[in-house]
Amino acid sequence: MADSALRLWKDLPYDVLTEIARLLPCRVDRLGMSKTCHDWWLAAERLQPPRQLPWLLLPDTTTSPMNIRRTDHHMLINLHTNRRLFLPDCVYYVSPVGGAILNPVSTTILVATFSSPPGQDTQCFGAAIIDSTWGVCRPQLAFWSMEVAGDCRPVAMGFMKILCEPWSRPEDVIYHRGAFHFLTDAEHVVVYDIFKLQEVEEGRGICLRIGARHHEYLKQGVPRSSTSVMARYLMESRGELLMVVRYLGNSPTWFPHTGGFQVYQATQLPTGAGQVQLAWTELHSLDGRMLFLARGCSRSYEVVDFPGSAFGEGIYFLDDRKSYDIDMVSLAAHAAPRRWYTCSDNGMCRWVQGDPRLQVFRRWFTNKQHSDYSPPIWCIP
């Protein structure tokens, strides 16, 4: 009887076995399937590995990983290959008077992104929101080439002005449609195109020829008070530009946590003059999306592309309350000697349609203590 039952499982058509394997996104489950018999092993092995969603990585909050002083350099590490690439520690500023290249100043990278995957045989540029020690009270912008990053530390070109209101500050940056897009706290977007590299005098690094465009966006919908905004994120979804606004919840001021989200899509509205006005139009449904939020690297995924996954439509967030705190992440000597990254505001927000629309939260690791070396991060496959 047992042999007969096993033979029935073994004799399943190959397309059925392939479908079973396809519905097992977890590698551990596929390993268990492959141990059933030879035919099942073939079906599991021949199928392409399933696409992976980001993993939430939390720091060990009981102790620091190394009992040494904190680093004063920037580095990019590929966790898959362990390859390390240098990132800028200094920026050259272009003087607003005469265009002369000023001496380099040390800087701290707060948010960074790239025009293409670094380390490949393609031209790659980096862009960042930075904080320098040059008497600047708000973050500035920097750009650099990753051409030499495998051998030595690249030098970035910094900018004092961002074509925005003097009191505004950039909050996020992504690479979208061939250009770097910076989102400000006024919810406007500044677009920078890098045209080419220009070598300058020896020892002074490179100069990037850059074009900039400033886009002011009207906001459609009824946003909450700006005083309740925790963070703003830019991301690309279905080829379009999205802005996600994260709001404070009803929590004590000394321990704020996430209370809600609004999602906007960049649209063009016709004007009476025959031109168009850029606008943020609120989305009232995620329409099958999974949005993973993180400054510089937010991602949008489609639920239908992950059959069998335990994750569904929603907004996935991690605790980044301190990751944009200049005093917290600064590498400068004047910074506080001890970091204090919060790690307890992580989870998923699901929208339930109705009047009014409900936002249902599933929170993770709410009792996680602070870390003195890293905030939570997404590991993006």
UniProtKB/TrEMBL annotation:
Domain of life of the organism encoding this protein: Eukaryota
Gene3D superfamilies assigned: 1.20.1280.50
Residues in KIB1-4 beta-propeller domain copies: 55-325
Coiled-coil residue spans: none
PANTHER family: F-BOX/KELCH-REPEAT PROTEIN-RELATED, OS05G0539300 PROTEIN
Protein name: KIB1-4 beta-propeller domain-containing protein
